[in-house]
Amino acid sequence: GCFRDVYLVSEKKTGNLYALKCLKKKHLSCTNLENEITVLKKIRHDNVIGLEDFYESRTHYYLVMQLVSGGELFDRIIDRGVYTEKDASQLVRQVLQAVNYLHENSIVHRDLKPENLLYFNSDENSKIMISDFGLSKMSDHGVMSTACGTPGYVAPEVLAQKPYSKAVDCWSIGVITYILLCGYPPFFEDNETRLFSKIMRADYAFHSPFWDNISESAKDFIRNMMQKHPHKRFTTEQALRHPWIIGKTARDQDIYETVSMQIQRNFAKSKWRVSSVSEGRVQYANTSLLIQTSVSYSVCVCVCYSKPSMPQQPLTT
After folding, report:
1. Catalytic one of 53, 75, 111, 123
2. Please, what are the domains in the chain?
3. pTM for the predicted model, two decimal places
4. Could you report the per-residue pLDDT of 71-86, keeping only the tens digit for each?
């Protein structure tokens, strides 16, 4: 992702809190940003982080975003203490509902992955929110060809450089579901060529002992989402009707110990390229931020950082 500063701001008139993303123009592709803005302006869903406003100056673009404060998906799982298949099922159902909405509006996210799933607030039953529409695409005709996404989550047809459709999002949801139930990715190789080869063959397995206590229904759901051939893959509508997603077959057995241990081992934050607070600037202020608009914001806290990513980096060509 591109370098961006993120500010916690409050609107002076109402006191409402927002996240303000400041993006330097010289680091951006105007086309990509315009695409992201177009997509965000079109959508409004309970499980999608919303764009509230947009401004620009000579050097920066400013996106006033809905504030999401509940933290990242993996952190919440690790902090839970108890975690079951049913918890994973409810989480995936929310993601499916949001992505189904996107697909109904001819939008393909194209970069669904755990770090783009955030909790709305710190409440125990907080809803999950989809973020980062930088690679999303409005596709009325349904077929795309630009290779993009994150290795490990990207569908076989994208790696094979074939035309693809919204089915790529369903593959990514399958990969996310797999990780939510065992704590490690279905495809992992130090060598990128071997990694891509495994993905293109859909060469994954439900390894013992990590999958011994996971229901056959959960595995069936994953198999349907991670079908190698996109025309055989579940759509979001089909996925939402699956018994495991509806909640009829998801087990209540606690799988926290295994999943949390594997998440910490395979997705450790030490592997993320995150700037430490000392590298950024933390400011407490009570001044107005004026951006060529009549709306003014008070800057509450400013933290500058490079947007984190998982060990696998986005693939774009």
Report:
1. 111
2. 4-68+273-316 (3.30.200.20), 73-269 (1.10.510.10)
3. 0.82
4. 999 999 999 999 999 9
